[in-house]
Amino acid sequence: MNRPSTRLRLGAVTLGACALLFAAFPLVRPFFRLDVFSPTLAAVASGPLASPSWVIAHLLLTAAFALLPCGLLALYASLADGPAEARALRGLVLGVAGTGLVVPAVGVEVFAMPVIGGLYLDGVTGVAPALASIYRGPMTLVMIVGLITLAVGAIDLAGAVWRSRSLPRWAGITLAIGLSLWLPLLPRPIRVMDGMLIGLGGVRLAWGIWRKGHVEGERGSSIDERHNGDAAPGAAVRRAEAGGPSRGCAYIVYGVEDTAPCMTWP
After folding, report:
1. What is the pTM of this model?
2. Fewer beta carbons under 10 A from the terminal one: N or C of the chain?
């Protein structure tokens, strides 16, 4: 088994699954008008926040962000032997760092927000200021920094894909546009379209990485077969030296090469 090619294909599966999860998120997530300075924020947001679809959607999003670094690593691995390795590495580092800065906000939305919304619907109105405080607090700032960092990393990776020509250029650009425009404040139609861009670009890149891993695996298997054939017990290879009457020959027996006069066949 060729381990690098197997890892490439495993990474391709990860990238494809991540892209599909990003595409599914806005289709499941309930939307509401978010005005963090409105005194009625809790009344408007508590219903969607406490709904099962909110929790399911954000669990999908959590899985997508968990798989994203693995998918970016697979994309870098497929570009590491090309002319844009340095840019691909920079994109990988920025993408992973940006993901790490976004994930805490996703955790708050999937684990804390539904609890606050449920309490408010149960009559505990004293929790209402907590929603505004969370959205207006450092969580949003950290998430914005993370999204910008992720966007820059995605653009770098798209540039590396463009230069390498080993993967579809349009897919790298599509994925970069989708990740760059992933903004929670945008309306639902744009969010759905953005998810589709991530899904389309990510799945197409994943297929390209899978094919590259398959080709490298077949090439590695062919080399291994030739090597094992040469090193098999009793195997001998005779090569006549060109340009001389001595007709000296080289033999490889049990993997050890030696030179001796050519054998004369009756």
Report:
1. 0.79
2. C
